[in-house]
Amino acid sequence: MFCWGMKRRIPRIVCFRLFLSNSYTKKYCKMAGDKKPFGRLPKSVKPVLYDLFLKPDLQKFTFEGKETISINILESTNKIILHALDLKIEEVELKDSEGFISKPSVTLSAEDETVTLGFDKELQIGEAFLKFIFVGELNDKMKGFYRSKYVSVNESGNQVEFYSAVSMLCTTHARRMFPCWDEPNLKAVFDISIAVCNTSHRALSNMPVVSDTTEENGDRLLKFQKTPIMSTYLVAVVVGDFDYVEDKDSDGVLVRVYTPIGKSEQGKFALEVAKCALPYYKDYFQVAYPLPKMDLIAIADFSSGAMENWGLVTYRESCLLVDPDNTSAVRKQWIALVVGHELAHQWFGNLVTMEWWTHLWLNEGYASFVEFLCVEHLFPEYDIWTQFVTDTYIRALELDALNSSHPIEIPVGHPSEIDEIFDDISYNKGASVIRMLHNFIGDQDFRKGMNLYLNKHQYSNTFTEDLWVALEEASNKPVKDVMSTWTLQKGFPVITVEKETQNPDGSRVISVSQTKFTANGQVDGDGVLWMVPLTFSTSRNPGVVCHKEIMSEIQKDIIIPANAISPGEWVKVNPSTVGYYRTRYTPELLNNFVPSISSRTLPPLDRLGLLDDLFALVQAGLSSTDEVLHLMLAMTDEDNYSVWSSMSNVLGKLAILLSNVEGDTEQLFKQYNRILLKKISSKLGWTPQPNESHLETMLRGLVMARLVSSADPDVMSEAKIKFANHLSGKETIVADLRSPIYKACLSSGDETTFNQLLQLYRGTDLHEEKDRICRAMGASKNKDILKKVLDFAMSDEVRSQDTVFVIISVGGSKVGRDLAWQFIQDNWSKLFNQYQGGFLLTRLVKNTTENFSSIEKAEEVENFFKQNGCVGAERTIQQACETIRLNAAWLKRDYEKLQNFLHKVVQK
């Protein structure tokens, strides 16, 4: 699954295979806030085959269901417990292997999300058949079996509403669509049939249709091929009106991209990516895609970015559809990554599935790594691995430095706990440590290990240790020993280069140490250590690793051989920023890199890695903020998109920090931004050049966005001209510049400007355009307008999937931060009931609170959620409040020095 933001330890090891034993669960739940002890389903009964019938009614927004589940009774028992939630069960009966039919008592528990069937006598070991008749609501919560509304314009110019029925069963929502054993390790085969009331509707599921008949009542009945054995959360059903484009991949697999009516052309880019990605993964894994078809479908209302249902992947429209005239280069690249991510899951997640959600990272971390392999293969011009560091690796490190982070593998039980680990640790840290492992053992052995793993465990479930065994067998390297230190304990080390010594024979001794890196800069008292694959490069050939070594000690002297280094050369740790750790140099050693940074002879990955490591040290109080600002002054000739992304990340975080302070420092910082951006903005200009590269197009958008946030007078003036021309139809703004131009105009505009943006929003049916307008609305500096934006966020005009991002946009500015936070408090019950926990709610909480910078605000946020609750976002609240306190400490520590530095630079 691709979460929407959102596509990045020797430990006391817990045996996670057994973590749900009663004693451990009670202890964990108490630590997590006195949560009710959680238990998995009894092992006395196992499903084998679900014969499932569904009939959605898209007028009444209900559905009827019937199923017969072939089960194996493994232990004599007088009760069967399985999952069911928000379903009305009308009839249940059990038929045993001898044909005897019994009617059990039925007890539903909404708290446990289960249905318990009680029998008068013991059920004997053997085969049996369990029949359910049930009804449910096609809800509007974007989970389970729900309704999605799409508005189109007919030939007469009138708006017409269409509804579709859509399943979103990950993580634990299959139980909302049919009674089932809703745990990933309880795999079964699914024989699905769908009745369609409206004969024009399409009905889709995981497998191809094998029959399409008309019933006596006029319904169409579509029966699908049986699925392979798979987990409940991967079942998919969609019913509605769709167009499609199709093609076959090189192996003859039929690939279709389904779109809203009239938008089939927008599915062509994703179709090309998908039909090339499937053969790529087949070749990489040396395991064929096992299903006869691959469908991708754009859904109007969708909580995450996409969901990897086997054979029928569901997407947000903005994560699948490309309009050649209105889709930005950034968005097109994002779509390639999302498609690559979901198709990687067809093997890693669907064919082989984690045994329990503790091992979620086996699905998400791996897919988040492999998507980059795929996109690098398909689009080498994207330079995607350099972007991996800024978009994935750095985000993981930022979260993982917090005390409220968590290990990659973390015990989870109740569904609310599961949703909360779909975060930058499971995805981005998971991908980053896999990348480090890939580098450690080499691509050939990595591919061999993947093949061993997939072949051995196909159609079954695994633990993390199973992956290590396969990779260790393929590489003959200590994979488990190394990687367990990265997955079973939270955080990561900082490798400090303490000194360098030249030996008489020409070799160099590098004295390094490792300690846990913490966001507050304090020494961690646990004394945890990592097995760190260290690599080194020199100025002679900065893009080549000259030495490798594994470090598991607190301190180590590493000898770079004389044939790998010459006198006077610098030595850099972690070339290409592959190792998942920070590096700290003495000021003298760090200064040695500055000429290579300025001249850009140091590769981009190393330029941005040095910058980001220094910035992290600054935030932790281990270096001063003026040091990182001084380093960036050496980067005014920079022209690499990814390096500028890292610089923009630094500038953006500092801008947010300084927006919390009164005085002229914020304005001085904006002037500093403009000094940094002057050369690159002059070089790029406003107008795309013929045959310019994909990365140049993205860089222009990034630079203009940064200049808009810095209130550059020339840029603001030109943005208003372009906006006026766009409104009049004189000249359309290119897609990559719309977001910064919209923000520029609204930040200095009035209610007329706001209404003009509203008209643009109402006049487009492209979700990408609606999305960027939504996210631009918070740029206004007018409190009255921002209040209207917040009201707009909760209106029927904004889909609930987008509401949170409109509110977040308001909370991103100095003027709107308190407004957004107050709005959330005032509307908390409504927001919580709408999202019922889940990804969108945690995003909302995190992004509207973490940018405050006072102890008082941290306490206010904590107290509000203590009083009002936020099931499923407890860890997110801890992280946000920790970040607020870190911001406060940062300001107190560095504000005066930062102010003096900016005065000196700006006055030159």
TrEMBL record:
Its cofactor is Zn(2+). It catalyses: Release of an N-terminal amino acid, preferentially alanine, from a wide range of peptides, amides and arylamides. Its main location: membrane. It is found in: Cell membrane; Cytoplasm. The active site is at E342 (proton acceptor). The record marks Y427 as: Transition state stabilizer. Transmembrane segments: none annotated. It is an enzyme of class 3 (hydrolase). Belongs to the peptidase M1 family. This is Aminopeptidase.
